[in-house]
Amino acid sequence: MCGIFGVHGDDKAAALAQLGLFALQHRGQESAGIVAVNGAEATSIRRMGLVSEAIDATELEALHGNIAIGHTRYSTAGSSTLENAQPVFVHLKVGHVALAHNGNLTNADVIRDGLEASGSIFGSTMDSEVIVHQLAKATPGKPEEMLAEALRGFEGSYSIIVTIGRTLLAARDPRGWRPLVMGQRDGATVFASETCALDIVGARFVRDVEPGEIIAVDEHGMRSIKPFTVAPQNRCVFEYVYFARPDSTIFGGSVDRARRALGRALAKEAPAPGADLVFAVPDSSNAAALGYAEESGLRLEHALIRNHYIGRTFIQPTQEGRTSKVRVKYNPVREVLQGQSVVMIDDSIVRGTTTRGLVALVRAAGAREVHMRVASPPITGPCYYGIDIPSKRELIAASQTVPEIAKTIGVDSLAYLSLDSMLASMPNGPEGFCHACFSGKYPVQPPRGFEESRAGRDE
Amino acid sequence: MCGIFGVHGDDKAAALAQLGLFALQHRGQESAGIVAVNGAEATSIRRMGLVSEAIDATELEALHGNIAIGHTRYSTAGSSTLENAQPVFVHLKVGHVALAHNGNLTNADVIRDGLEASGSIFGSTMDSEVIVHQLAKATPGKPEEMLAEALRGFEGSYSIIVTIGRTLLAARDPRGWRPLVMGQRDGATVFASETCALDIVGARFVRDVEPGEIIAVDEHGMRSIKPFTVAPQNRCVFEYVYFARPDSTIFGGSVDRARRALGRALAKEAPAPGADLVFAVPDSSNAAALGYAEESGLRLEHALIRNHYIGRTFIQPTQEGRTSKVRVKYNPVREVLQGQSVVMIDDSIVRGTTTRGLVALVRAAGAREVHMRVASPPITGPCYYGIDIPSKRELIAASQTVPEIAKTIGVDSLAYLSLDSMLASMPNGPEGFCHACFSGKYPVQPPRGFEESRAGRDE
Amino acid sequence: MCGIFGVHGDDKAAALAQLGLFALQHRGQESAGIVAVNGAEATSIRRMGLVSEAIDATELEALHGNIAIGHTRYSTAGSSTLENAQPVFVHLKVGHVALAHNGNLTNADVIRDGLEASGSIFGSTMDSEVIVHQLAKATPGKPEEMLAEALRGFEGSYSIIVTIGRTLLAARDPRGWRPLVMGQRDGATVFASETCALDIVGARFVRDVEPGEIIAVDEHGMRSIKPFTVAPQNRCVFEYVYFARPDSTIFGGSVDRARRALGRALAKEAPAPGADLVFAVPDSSNAAALGYAEESGLRLEHALIRNHYIGRTFIQPTQEGRTSKVRVKYNPVREVLQGQSVVMIDDSIVRGTTTRGLVALVRAAGAREVHMRVASPPITGPCYYGIDIPSKRELIAASQTVPEIAKTIGVDSLAYLSLDSMLASMPNGPEGFCHACFSGKYPVQPPRGFEESRAGRDE
Amino acid sequence: MCGIFGVHGDDKAAALAQLGLFALQHRGQESAGIVAVNGAEATSIRRMGLVSEAIDATELEALHGNIAIGHTRYSTAGSSTLENAQPVFVHLKVGHVALAHNGNLTNADVIRDGLEASGSIFGSTMDSEVIVHQLAKATPGKPEEMLAEALRGFEGSYSIIVTIGRTLLAARDPRGWRPLVMGQRDGATVFASETCALDIVGARFVRDVEPGEIIAVDEHGMRSIKPFTVAPQNRCVFEYVYFARPDSTIFGGSVDRARRALGRALAKEAPAPGADLVFAVPDSSNAAALGYAEESGLRLEHALIRNHYIGRTFIQPTQEGRTSKVRVKYNPVREVLQGQSVVMIDDSIVRGTTTRGLVALVRAAGAREVHMRVASPPITGPCYYGIDIPSKRELIAASQTVPEIAKTIGVDSLAYLSLDSMLASMPNGPEGFCHACFSGKYPVQPPRGFEESRAGRDE
User: Is residue B434 annotated as part of the catalytic site, yes or no?
Assistant: First the structure.
């Protein structure tokens, strides 16, 4: 998963991009980068780390120009290198080209093989670079038409923000897998993965970039084309469940409202009679827990405090269980939990190891009974379209039944939200979503050898 | 304000200290340091920055020994230098001495003048260093008696953790201003500012270090002395209101319970009839908002999302109001606020600038009415005892009445909790607190020229 | 100018490459890089700065494999970026390819234009990258044949060391512009720009890579091909005059011997009757000064001490002349110079500014007369074949006669060595050299717009 | 050994100090520091590393004021920490005090014990800090008199540059062990260890600070006092032999002239009949080799090339002898050495390991016979007065006879200069030198436990 941002028409474009990336940091923390376009010149910063580490204030001031795009990259195993940091930034015969991509091109390897066979050279292992190579081979013309030509053969998901010379472009794949929004701020046009990045720069939300749409902005104004065949919608339901920020609006609906609805549906479908209180695993489940409390009438409590200061590495001094990673990140509030029968709400369970650690913490703090309620269905398969869900063998729900999971994580009861209820809770109705990781219904062929290569990492 | 931690009796003492400092990071983010004692040897790390930045994993492994103390320092203007990072670490004729201090010695400058006049040399501008100089002049004897002799002349607040040779000591001033707790973990003894730092290392809370008590731990066991005249208690009420972590127990009471009680009292004393919902300024006011919601029956909402990724510096690209610091740190949830009459809960108001910015954000997100409720009284004076409350001229409530403040911050109504209600909400009754910043009743003379020097900074 | 190094057949290949680069540091100080090949895997380090700054010991240990190549890059204006650091390192369909280049391809821009027009993407502004693109398009086959095919259209100078999959290759352009030597060390084969890099790894010099030769080394042994039409030799005379290290053997002759011969020839051609002593501008002129002293019978002195500790940046505190860059780098020995008539030897004069500063220092230290003798002819034109000689308008001898230069630099007399004498001093006779920068006889067409673009930088 | 520098009366004092430290870098490469005094304010930079690494340009610009002192520190085992970096910088009741020290106080530990017993606290393990403590206890008065009082009890060597408030002071111990010179530059007064640091800032040499003299400079002018009993001179002969830069004048004589005289005396006392040529171990022996060549009539050659780019750490890839540290630092010129009988000149031999490595290199490069000539006597004892000569057990001449050393280092013949000839070569006659490391005649008692503690390091 990644966060993307672009702005056209502000003299401080790069500084706005930095702000936008701060707001999109939750979508990727491995690397960050900004490319600014100043007439025929273009400059870039790309570094490993958080935006606050990667984007130096002095360097940022040197990124001149009224167009800028930015990218935050999620850490995915095996490819965590500076070469793979984005935006991709090259010089083509049509001028400088920069590209920031959120998504996963499922047939990128096939196209890449063809390009390599005809002598193209790749500097990274990213599928995103393949788009740029196709762009290099596109018929010279209007930037949006060149981009349409370059994108034509790709399958899978892409929300992209691109600069070709002095034109800023935003495009979304025909199935609309990943979100992409457009805003205005005085004379400037802003594109971003989520509306929270419009808010931070003081831009007003205008509309979504539509599935299959390419929007181009330059000094002559804005142009929109829809060059691709209409396809069924496959918006990622997991964006609403976990990934996006609660203060964002994506796919035309509020993330906070979606999560509140999930929590309420969960309370209806899986009540916890006899429980004393309900609490969230902070912060991603806060809204769902609030919904659960409202619907169930149970008392809401803050029973787990999350430490936001933990760096990405710390020495684990002694044996697991004592000072595990979970304990370093979360601390239970003993006075809240002591002697209580509690409902613990999480948005989802992936491997189950964190959940198991949390349950142990909660019990050690005195909880009498722990009833786990999950605001989405069991995750049974990986995602091939841009979210870093681990391979099948790491997913607890791929190999264990719900009662087995309950035993593994050590709870008194466990219930997941059903697929139907999840979809029914979505802001604009249950249609048009990809829920493959929950349902196994993959709308587009996985990339060649995808699961195998990930499984290989487990040995 | 600072966080302090000490452990005796664990071979991984320094690694435990690092964990403890992670849990105490909220008490100080300017610098961090650890000193480890290994027999007659002692080694240290001290750096500017967060624990995750200051304490390098490789260096940490080189801190051998079964005794360690650590310190996180709060950024106070004018003295943010490495020289002032703690623990203070020196070699005296009795061996290595390290000291971590939380508090403020109000007569340190007088004692320092005397020491300098007789030829002592100071390496920092910290009052804490004066204790070490007094220790250097103490009559050789048992470590706890030397420490008692060194501390005798000091006024003001101190919770300290000290190593003298191979002995670990913890001491708290007779008025008990700052918290200090003791825990056990297998054979090891742990001291920390708050219990959340016991939790993170898996230590069991035993009891508070008592006001006026000095506890010494060495290979022969534990010894406690109470060498000072009994004084009235002056526990800092602001620790409960704002400073400590909600998952901590300090002064014998739960911080979470205290804040919930403050919220409930606030709802009784200052209801908001006609309001649609209540929300917290996250994260420090979460518990008070929950209390307010419970008591008032108003719907609790998460209306502000806080961004934890913002680095300590970012370039402010354009004019205030658009992309202010407040907007970068907080984002309102439009769907929650749109058209609503809202109650915004904060634990306290200091300068009023952040509050003003938040109110503007909340209104811009569509709130119809904003009713501000503050879970403590107006802050009218600085703190001379260890909390970095700014000088009088920066405190909004020092020069404005409540109606004036309401106007300044732009709310429809504003109410603070009364002093009596605040004290009545404290876990073990209203007695024995310092509330000088709220009430102006300073139990101990301020340090010479304190306010003047701070006022000087304003010009 | 750059330094290149390669080794095949040693398990510590990357560590040997680091040593080799230490010895070739004088050929390039802008950036350094190493690529190591371990079977089908390959890893790299590339950074700005000196080898000691760029190649971290811990990272170096992670460069596994028994093949490694390295590169030190000279700082040339306008392109000092990490993207331009070498070795070029990409993945092609034939496997990993790494390339280290010393030289200048005079028609690279023409070939690059063609490649870009057909959709190739370049990640750097280096001519060296064009070779890799041609390699990507070469007919699959033996690595040496693919390299031959890739190199076929290029004009200009190249000594290159390349890895294609598990094969190490070394190649030199048909005119033999830049040096390239081969050595042996137990079972390992070593290639390097100069023999001093063989010495530092304990390798025995075997022979030069011959002009127009491609040598391939893999697990089956060594193969040599000469795929190009024989061309007249154009070995760079400036390598002997200034660039190479005196302890190296290049083009089949000792650099030290060459410089001694230049000094002796200079003494014959341009004696300084009446002078008291002779001294070198250290360190590059030491050998020439020794030759001049031997031939002339004048007393050799060390009159200038060079400071090797000066970092690349220092603040210039006051007005020029007082603490100029020259003064920071060199200090005269007053006791040697006081009242003397001196002969100052330098290998060459480029802009004349350093020389002028040195003459002023020498006079200020008491020299009565300063007779400048230069061990090469006046430099009147830029180099298009790999040495960073500035544009014509910056070359003092391009616009001033020898008497004018003497006046400009402030000497009592000035003499250069003649072109014929310089060539006659070369180890293996005067034939087969490029001396275009001295004579204006450019054996190969300059690249399109070369001088213009450089001239443009002056405005 | 250390380098010290001070300037009074220039608005760019800190920038001049940086230049001065560049020129004194050879006297200490472990750490560097500058303190600048601006009226009642004073600021400092101190870091580990070379001047170019330790003194950042931006930070330097923040060191305001017209007084500055600087220090470069030599790496001595066991105490290489930032705490020990100089200048010592503290605030006393008389104002800011900064001190830069070159030398060794042989009774510092005794005085320190007394100070610690009376409650003083030390922040470093340096003897230099003891002076500051004594200064803190001195009777308030004129700065020079306070400094005299502070210095009164000390034995051993000290050349110091000090600031007390707004006064710059320079002092040299009564025996004059270490050099210290004074210069003028417009209205500014400059003090430095050697004249090369006057040269680099464009200051004119005025005179030595005399043994036992204290010079004070402030806005009222310059004052000199000689408060100590006259003592016999003990100028360090090793400064002339090895330590000082050849372009410096110290102790009233030229270092270059001294070394030339040593070389000539060596040629007379220890000729090498039948040898073909003579060469130096660069760079410290260049002048002695020149002297030897002049006197002997042997041909001078540059047979060893020194690499100045080697960083302080490099991975040693394989077995000793192949790629030893010596080989990385020096490379022989084969064409010079092949088949020759050579005289190799070094200024001194300490452990013998480098010499042994060099002899092996020279032989491997083809030398037929190697005759080693050393321009000073055998070093048989450590230095207690400020030079980091290793402990007795590491000194090759402390346990081996000259014939044994010849065998150990592998030469055909070996001769050292005699003590008498060395002293006779000194610029102003043989009297008034300390030559304890050569002769064993220690003029002042070694510090308590000195040799033992160093010997302890060997186990």
Answer: no
| Active site (catalytic) residues of C | 2
Q: Cβ(B170)–Cβ(B8) under 8 Å? A: no
In this prediction, residue B313 carries a pLDDT of: 46
Tell me which residue of C22, C308, C192 sits closest to D311, measured CA to CA.
Answer: C22
Would you call B315 and A18 a contact, using CB atoms and an 8 Å cutoff?
yes
A and D touch per CB criterion (3+ pairs under 8 A): no
Instruction: Please give the interface size between C and D, counted as residue pairs whose CB atoms are below 8 Å apart.
Output: 167
Cα(B4)–Cα(B194) distance, rounded to whole angstroms?
9
Q: Where are the beta strands (DSSP E) in A327-451?
A: 330-332, 341-346, 369-374, 413-416, 433-434
Mean of pLDDT values over D381-390? 88
Structure tokens at B286: 């979460």
* Residue appearing with tokens 């120009």: A65
**Alpha helices, DSSP H, located in D138-277:** 143-151, 196-200, 237-238, 255-269
Amino acid symbol at D264: R
CA distances from D212 to D3, D74, D384 (A): 19, 24, 19
**DSSP calls for D204-228:** EEEEEPPTT-EEEEETTEEEEE--S
Q: Contact, C12 vs C60, CB < 8 A?
A: no
User: Rounded to whole angstroms, how far apart are CA atoms B287 and B260?
Assistant: 5
- Nearest CA to D422 out of D299, D294, D205, D266 is that of D266
Q: What is the pTM of this model?
A: 0.86
Q: Which of D46, D180, D177, D42 is closest to D106 using CA atoms?
A: D177
ipTM over 0.85: yes
Q: What is the pLDDT of residue B449?
A: 63
Ramachandran sector of residue A82 (left: φ over 0; alpha: ψ -120 to 50; beta: rest): alpha
Rounded to whole angstroms, what are the CA distances from A345 to A289, A295, A348, A371?
6, 13, 9, 9
Do strands B413-416 and B369-374 pair parallel, antiparallel, or not at all (unpaired)? Answer: parallel
Which residue from B217, C368, B66, B331 is spatially nearest to A22, judged by alpha carbons? B331
Instruction: Copy the structure tokens of residue C372.
Output: 């400048």
Task: Identify the H or E element spanning C8.
Answer: strand C2-8
pLDDT digits (tens, 9 = 90+) for C142-190: 999 999 999 999 999 999 999 999 999 999 999 999 999 999 999 999 9
Give residues with Cβ within 8 angstroms of C360, minimum separation 6.
Answer: C321, C326, C410
List the helix and strand counts (H, then E) for chain C: 18, 24
- Could you report how far apart the first and last alpha carbons of chain A are, in Å? 24
Sign of the alpha-carbon dihedral angle for B105, B106, B107, B113? positive
Determine, for residues A137 and C119 on separate chains, whether the beta-carbon distance falls below 8 Å: yes
Among partner residues C92, C116, C133, which is closest to A116 by beta-carbon distance?
C92
At C252, the pLDDT band (50, 70, 90 cuts) reads very high
Catalytic residue among A2, A236, A383, A434: A2
Residue A444 and residue A213: Cα distance in Å, rounded?
A: 19
pLDDT digits (tens, 9 = 90+) for D109-160: 999 999 988 888 887 888 899 999 999 999 999 999 999 999 999 999 999 9
With CA atoms as reference, report the closest residue to A247 among B326, B334, B279: B334
Testing the interface with D: which of C331, C358, C362, C428 to mutate, by most D Cβ within 10 A? C331
- Looking at A275-377, which runs of residues are DSSP E strands? 277-280, 299-301, 304-306, 330-332, 341-346, 369-374
The pLDDT-based confidence of C311 (bands split at 50, 70, 90) is low
CB-CB contact of A194 with A204 (8 Å): no
CB-based touch B/D (3+ pairs, under 8 A):
yes
- Mean per-residue pLDDT for A231-259? 96
A136: nearest CB among C93, C119, C132: C119
* Euclidean distance between CA atoms A160 and A173, whole angstroms: 9
Residue of A44, A47, A89, A121 to mutate for C, most C C-beta atoms under 10 A: A121
